[in-house]
Amino acid sequence: MDKKISEILERLARQEKYEQQNYDAVPREQRMLAISPEIGNFYAILLRALGARRILEIGTSVGYSTIWFAESLQNTQNSRITTIDVSDKKTSRARQNLEEAGLSHLVEFLTGDALKILEQLRSRFQKTGELYDFVFIDADKERYVQYFDMVFPMVRLGGIIAADNILEPARYASHISKYTSYVRSNPKVISQLVPIDNGEEITIKISA
């Protein structure tokens, strides 16, 4: 990995660790709420194995996961990440972090309500027909099922929809249970929990 990218990931990982240890001292709107380095590395390997070129991320935060995704795509032609966050401030921080990492040219930053933006992306998809290889859902847990339904038609066969926070924090358990029951009962996918840190649900599209 490029030294500059590695240094930025390490800095953000230290910040995330501090926030976890001082959770109540950091205002919610400033929290990173990021994946762990172990999960980041897992997805970096998965994306390379998948041969991913087009990625959609729902929940940018400050761009930690986006950097992991972009780093895995940087030597792939015609690659692009579209990432969505509701917060202008977090999008700004994410953009700065990606610029410092030298990866911002790979990323389209969209800010606003994710469902409304997904409607716009669906309209764009209907015109272009370009499918996503990988979708990462890491936003408001109560809308995971809605996000899944919105993105499913835009994912290629063999593509992956991944969701974060399947095991932790426990306060999301009811929303997560609804999501996992929903996707695991869908005959058009194969879905499996990967128990790394907070837990990742990996769902592969096998039928349109």
Question: Brief description of this entry?
Answer:
The chain is of the alpha/beta class and 208 residues long.
Overview features:
single chain; seven-stranded mixed β-sheet; 208 residues; globular; 7 helices
Overview of this structure, please?
It is built from 7 helices and 7 strands, in the order H-H-E-H-E-H-E-H-E-H-E-H-E-E. The protein has a 7-stranded mixed β-sheet with strand order 3-2-1-4-5-7-6, sandwiched between helices.
Total strand segments: 7
Shape: globular
Measured by DSSP, the beta-strand proportion falls in 15-25%
Low-confidence stretches: none
Oligomer: single chain
Q: Summarize model confidence as the mean pLDDT.
A: 93
Largest sheet report = 7 strands, mixed
Secondary-structure element order, N to C: HHEHEHEHEHEHEE
| Biggest sheet strand line-up | 3-2-1-4-5-7-6
Sheet/helix structural class? alpha/beta
Please give the share of residues in helix. Answer: 40-55%
* Tally of DSSP helical segments: 7
How far do the termini sit from each other?
Answer: 36 Å
- Report Rg: 16 Å
